[in-house]
Amino acid sequence: MIIQSKVRGFICITAHPDGCAAQVRKQIDYVRARGELKNAPKRILILGASTGYGLASRIVSVAGAKAATFGVFYERPSADGKPASAGWYNTAALEAAALKEGIPFYSMNGDAFSSDFKTKTVEALRKTLGTVDCVIYSLAAPRRTDKDGITYKSVLKPIGQSFTSKTVNTDKGEVFEITLEPATDDEIFQTVKVMGGEDWEEWIRLLVAEKLLASNATIVAYSYIGPEVTWPIYKSGTIGRAKAHLAETAERLNSFLSDKIQGRALISVNKAVVTQASSAIPVVPLYNSILFKVMKEAGLHEDCIQQMYRLFAGLFDEKGALKRDSATCVRLDDLELKPEVQFEVQRIWERINTSNLRTLSDFDGYKKNFLQLFGFECEGVDYNADVNPERPIRNLIA
Ligand code: NAI
C-alpha cells in the first residue's frame, strides 16, 4: 500500500514503516559515532520504550552498550490493511538491528498501568533477562486505570487562575491567543494519579518483591520544568503537580532501594523536545518552535537521542558530569535554560505573530520534526512506493 501522512490536530493517524526505520537508524548512527558506553547497564527494563525519550533510552542501551533490553509499550500493530502505529514500527526496526548483532531484545505490548499486565511482564522478565540493573520509566498517557479498576484522566490546565497566552495552530500556522480555565481540585487529583509517581512506585516495589532488581540497580523517571513562559501551563499547572509527586516518589524510592539493594532512584529533568506527548500540550509547540531556532543558531540544539546519550554517559560512564539539584534529581535541561537562550526566546515570544512565525521561529523545522515522529518527511524514503505495512516484532511476548 501507499502510506501518506494524515494529521488530525496534534496527532498523525498513519505511520510509515520505512520512515520510522530511517529515524531509528539515524539515532543508532548517532550513538555509534559518539562511542561505546562501557559501564552502562547491561540488562535494562524500559517502560514506555517505543517513542520519544523511552525509545531513545533503548537505542542508547542497544547501540551504545549492547545491552539486553526488555521494552514495554502500548502500540497498535497493522490490521485490516491499515498501518501500525509509529512506536510499533520503531520497535520492529530497532529489534531487527539488535538481533542482527545477537543482542537480546524482548518486548511486551499492553497497558502498563494494569496489575494483570504487570504480573505477566514480571513473569516474562524472569524467563528472559532475569534481574535487571536499570529501569527507565518513560510512560506518557492521557489516562490510567489503576489496580482497583478506577480510571483517571489527566488534563493540561493551569491551577488557581485562568491563563491567557499565545499559542499556534500547527495545521494552519496561525498564532492566536487562548485562555485556559483553571483545573478543578478533582482534575488536579486525577492528573497526579495518571502522571505522578504512584504507578512508578508500584512497578518498582513489585520488581523488588520479585527479586528482579539487581543490587546497585538504578531507576530513572523523566520530568520537565521549563522556563517561566510555560510555567502557568506546565510547572505550576496540573502536569507540574504530577511531576512534583514524581519527584517526591523518587525520594521515597531512593531510600527504599538504598536499604533493600543498595540501589538508587532518580528523576532526570529533560529538555523540551517534539514527541507525541509534548505536541498535545497547549502553548508548548509555539515555545518549541522558538526554542529550536534559538538553540540551533547557538549550536546547542539537542533531540531525544542526544539527551539520552548524555544521561547514560553522565550516570554510568562519568563522561561529562551531570548537573544535579539533589541526590535524586539530575538536570539535562541546562542548555535549554541558559539565561542567554531564554533571554532570546522571551524577546521573540513578545514579537511573534502569524506573519513572522516562519522567520522568527523554526516552525517549519517543528512541523518536519513532528511528521518524522510518524516516519514522514524522512530523507531517502520513497513515499510513492508500495510498502508492506506488516512489520513483525519477533520477540514480542504475548
Ligand atoms: P511519548 O508519547 O513519545 O512516549 C510515551 C511512551 O509511553 C510510548 O512508548 C507509549 O507506547 C507508552 N505508553 C503510553 N501509555 C501506555 C500504557 N498505558 N502502557 C504502556 N505503555 C504506554 O512521550 P515522551 O515525550 O517521550 O514522554 C516520556 C516521559 O518524558 C514523560 O514522563 C514526559 O513527561 C517526559 N518528558 C518529556 C519531554 C518532552 O518535551 N517531550 C520533556 C521532558 C520530560
Instruction: State the domain count.
Output: 1
Q: And the CATH topology?
A: Rossmann fold
Number of helices: 13
Residue windows where pLDDT falls under 50 for at least 5 positions: none
Instruction: Please name the CATH architecture.
Output: 3-Layer(aba) Sandwich
Task: Sum up the overall morphology in one term.
Answer: globular
The largest sheet is:
8 strands, mixed
Rg calculated over all Cα atoms: 20 Å
**CATH top level label:** Alpha Beta
Q: Roughly what percent helix?
A: 40-55%
N/C terminus separation: 27 Å
Short structural summary:
By secondary structure, this protein is of the alpha/beta class. It is built from 13 helices and 14 strands. Helix 1 crosses helix 3, helix 2 runs parallel beside helix 3 and helix 5 packs parallel to helix 7.
Structural account:
The chain is an alpha/beta fold. The chain has a single domain (13-372), classed as 3-Layer(aba) Sandwich (Rossmann fold). Helix content is 42%, strand content 18%. It is built from 13 helices and 14 strands. It has helices spanning 17-34, 52-65, 86-100, 115-127, 185-195, 198-209, 238-261, 276-279, 284-297, 304-317, 339-351, 357-360, 363-372, and strands at 7-8, 11-12, 43-47, 68-73, 105-109, 132-137, 143-145, 151-153, 163-169, 174-180, 213-223, 264-269, 323-326, 329-331. An eight-stranded mixed beta sheet has the order 5-4-3-6-11-12-14-13, sandwiched between helices. It has a two-stranded antiparallel sheet with strand order 1-2. Helix 5 (185-195) runs parallel beside helix 7 and helix 6 (198-209) runs parallel beside helix 7 (238-261). The protein is globular, with a radius of gyration of 20 Å. The relative contact order is 0.17. 1,4-dihydronicotinamide adenine dinucleotide is lined by residues 48-54, 72-75, 87, 111-113, 138-141, 222-224, 270, 272-273, 275-278.
